[in-house]
Amino acid sequence: MIRIEDPRDDGVTELIAALDSYLCSLYPPQSNHFLDLEQLSRPEIRFFVARRGGAPLACGALRIDAQGYGEVKRMYVAPPARGQGLGRAILARIEEQAAREGLRLMRLETGVRQAEAIALYRSCGYVDCDPFGDYRPDPLSRFMEKRLPQA
Asked: Which of 31, 32, 83, 87 has the lowest CB atom count within 10 Å?
């Protein structure tokens, strides 16, 4: 089951901490663009959690930018749950929510050392783009976007 939850809920904070630890093992601090728990709780964020048997296994967030696009943030699947399609399911749920909220463009930043994530985004229709918003060019970042179908 995938639904919008409070990122401060039981078990979810541990999932986010695991994501932070993983990204910190791959990139220097200046190349990590985390939203912390307080930022993830803001009104412009929709934070999704996939659970099985009550245990949180994956997460992802939709950040609604004031410029009128959605940004994919905080995508993560716990290692024991990988290979089961949860990342794809969370991404589809984020895009569905974005479309419901009238957004027509999705954007994201991911790291160049995350080949599986890049492959997922490409297979879901994301293409490379220039840095957007407050992001600056970074050799460790890849920027991608996707136009959502009109209703």
From this structure: 83
Q: Which residue has the tokens 């630890």?
A: 21
**In the 8-state DSSP scheme, what is residue 17?**
H
Q: Which pLDDT score is estimated for 151? A: 61
Give pLDDT tens digits for 74-94.
999 999 999 999 999 999 999
Element (H, E) at 64: strand 55-64
- Contact assessment for residue 30 and residue 65, using Cβ atoms and an 8 Å cutoff: no
Q: Give the orientation angle of helix 86-100 with respect to helix 115-123, to 10 degrees.
A: 50
Mean pLDDT by 10 residues, the chain (151 residues): 93 95 96 94 97 95 97 97 96 98 97 96 98 97 94 61
